[in-house]
Design a protein that fits this description.
The chain is of the alpha+beta class. The protein has helices spanning about 15-25, 35-40, 60-80, 90-110, 145-155, 165-175, 200-205, 250-255, and strands at about 1-5, 5-10, 10-15, 115-120, 135-140, 220, 225. Strand 6 and strand 7 (about 225) form a beta hairpin.
């Protein structure tokens, strides 16, 4: 048991149905082992310069790193830091910004009647494909402040191998019923061939909804196709915009790309 800012929470075993839902929505059975393995090796690690920049060592989880990096930049702007300058954050300040980015992403993903969920490994070791629900505990929170405190206390788990995947697990456990957001419920969040993030996963992290498209709202083409339901603080940029080969809708343009 633990207490965060007056809110008592109990570490409980991860329910089998929650674990199975997370695994089924993440991976196809045909996912190449090498592609999946890259997710188990990637962590949230900062570069030396810029000191707020996340380092990417492998292909695959880059969509997660990009989304989190965008919210870190948003956090710096909110604190009157100029990310284009050579600002140097000490490790504690950079970690605090990472935690605030996590909280923003999970808040957007959380359903109105739901709670925040943290899946944390029972043992102080990196994630592996052999782990099961029994390898994790589940903490639930109602407030952003308590979530931030718990993330801060356990941030080292996200900064070692598998930390990027662990954060995605937390987002999925917070949202639940993620496939309800999909156009095609047979899709997964990670491609089978190369282990890349799907559009659904990037939308979930940026917009809070794992929709399959980047247009505004819902488009009916004989069947409803789900886009971005509401404007958010972070959106997309493309070099093709300058050539007028692509135009983002209002809800996906955001203020940070």
């Amino acid at each position: 048991n633990a207490e965060y800012m007056g809110e008592k929470t109990m570490a409980v075993p991860v329910p089998a149905d929650v674990w199975n839902e997370i695994q089924e929505v993440m991976w196809l059975p045909t996912c190449e082992p090498e592609a999946a393995q890259r997710w188990y090796q990637e962590a949230f690690r900062f570069k030396e310069r810029p000191s707020w920049g996340l380092a990417q060592s492998l292909g695959g989880p880059c969509g997660v790193l990009s989304a989190v990096q965008s919210f870190i930049i948003l956090d710096l702007l909110a604190r009157n830091h100029d990310p284009t300058s050579e600002i140097l954050l000490d490790p504690a300040a950079a970690t605090a910004s990472l935690v605030r980015a996590f909280v923003q992403i999970m808040t957007r993903a959380k359903r109105a009647s739901g709670s925040y969920a943290l899946l944390l490994p029972c043992a102080a070791e990196a994630l592996t494909p052999a782990q099961s629900a029994a390898s994790f505990t589940l903490l639930s929170f109602l407030s952003e402040d308590n979530l931030a405190e718990a993330l801060t206390s356990n941030i080292a788990m996200f900064q070692r191998n598998g930390g990027v995947l662990l954060f995605v697990y937390c987002v999925l456990a917070t949202r639940l019923r993620v496939r309800d957001d999909f156009d095609d419920p047979t899709q997964t969040l990670v491609s089978a061939d190369f282990g890349h993030c799907s559009q659904n996963l990037v939308n979930l992290l940026l917009c809070g909804v794992a929709s399959s498209n980047v247009f505004d709202g819902t488009v009916d083409v004989g069947m409803p196709l789900q886009g971005v339901p509401a404007p958010g603080p972070v959106g997309y940029l493309s070099r093709l915009e300058a050539l007028r080969l692509v135009v983002w809708d209002e809800r996906t343009s955001g203020c940070v790309g």
